[in-house]
Design goal:
This protein is α/β, with parallel strands linked by helices. It has 2 domains: 138 residues, Rossmann fold (3-Layer(aba) Sandwich); 164 residues, L-2-Hydroxyisocaproate Dehydrogenase, Chain A, domain 2 (Alpha-Beta Complex). Helix content is 43%, strand content 20%. It contains 10 helices and 14 strands. It has a 6-stranded parallel sheet with strand order 3-2-1-4-5-6, sandwiched between helices. A 3-stranded antiparallel sheet has the order 7-10-11. Strands 12-13-14 form a 3-stranded antiparallel sheet. The radius of gyration is 19 Å and the shape is globular. 47% of the residues are buried.
Length: 317
């Protein structure tokens, strides 16, 4: 049965580390008045919902509960975090076959609910699974968003803020391409409150630009591996990233975020989902934003796209 959308309702599918942290973060955000949690293990979802609900007196009234697919058709946003965890020494792309199989179970169940909201893909590898979600759901592409490199970009801004001794919110920069090992730090278009990055570095007494930026971008790319090796998973940063994307949607902010979405010729890339800056609002993705890339960054971006396309060819989608 088709229902009217509840504009203040969200659902989280998958209540592992990332799903539970996301639900906890959303409870505190006051973006939603109703939050339903789904998991293959109903008791896990129920336990998380009950635990998180005990914080409601400190955060503001909302309804949070465990449910099933019949409970989510009227949600404004469905967030999918379900999937196998990334193990130490395992890349995000190593997860692909396990998690595509899980998505083949989940996404058609969402589609059968005649869901009209935004589908937000968070599971890894997020670019491949965003592509899979588009193909498996039949939803318009602008309504299927991957969390993309929103977290990687936050990590980059944090690292640059530590390097430069300046508020990370004054730094304008993007990680683009795959959310993974072929990601690219777009330093050529990076600025600090309008001042080109290298100029600001010199203002702060840093002159070995190439070496410093290479070290920072490598640290950003590898920090998830370090965290996973130490505590088995990363979940706080991605939960905050999901909250930020939801904020853009629910408040119709039309902010520019490096989310994962289908590409149709932008930067010479098509037929794959890739993480690139886009305007995000209540209807999902409005348009990609053409940031300036130098020749090397463009070459690396095309290489990143080819890696993802090669993986998609192996999948039955």
């Amino acid at each position: 049965m088709e229902r009217n959308m509840n504009p203040r309702k969200a659902a989280v599918i998958g209540c592992g580390f990332v799903g539970a942290a996301t639900a906890f973060t959303l409870m505190q955000s006051r973006l939603f008045t109703e939050l339903v949690l789904l998991d293959a293990n109903f008791d896990k979802a129920d336990g998380e919902a009950k635990d998180i609900a005990h914080g409601i007196p400190f955060a503001g009234q909302m309804e949070i509960y465990a449910g099933d697919y019949d409970d989510i058709g009227d949600a404004a946003v469905i967030i999918v975090t379900a999937g196998a965890n990334q193990k130490p020494e395992e890349t995000r792309l190593d997860l692909v076959h396990k998690n595509v199989a899980i998505y083949k179970s989940i996404i058609p169940k969402i589609a059968r609910q005649k869901f009209k909201g935004i589908l937000l893909v968070v599971s890894n590898p997020v670019d491949i699974l965003t592509y899979a979600a588009v193909k498996l759901s039949g939803f318009p592409e602008h309504r299927v968003i991957g969390s993309g490199t929103v977290l990687d970009t936050a990590r980059l801004k944090y690292a640059l803020s530590q390097h430069l001794g300046v508020d990370s919110r004054s730094i304008h920069s993007f990680i683009i391409g795959e959310h993974g090992d072929s990601e690219i730090a777009a330093f050529s278009s990076t600025n600090v409150s309008g001042i080109p990055l290298n100029n600001f570095c010199e203002l702060r007494g840093h002159f070995h630009h190439e070496e410093a930026m290479e070290e920072i971008s490598e640290n950003v790319k590898n920090c998830a591996y370090e965290i996973i090796a130490k505590k088995q998973a990363t979940y706080y940063g991605i939960a905050m990233s999901v909250k930020r994307i939801c904020q853009c949607i629910m408040m119709n902010e039309r902010s520019i975020l490096p989310i994962s979405a289908m590409m149709h010729g932008e930067y010479g890339v098509s037929g794959i989902a890739l993480s690139m800056p886009a305007v995000v609002g209540m209807h999902g993705i409005e348009t990609h934003v053409p940031i300036a890339l130098n020749e090397e960054e463009t070459k690396q971006l095309l290489h990143s796209a080819e890696i993802l396309k090669g993986i998609v060819k192996e999948l039955d989608l």
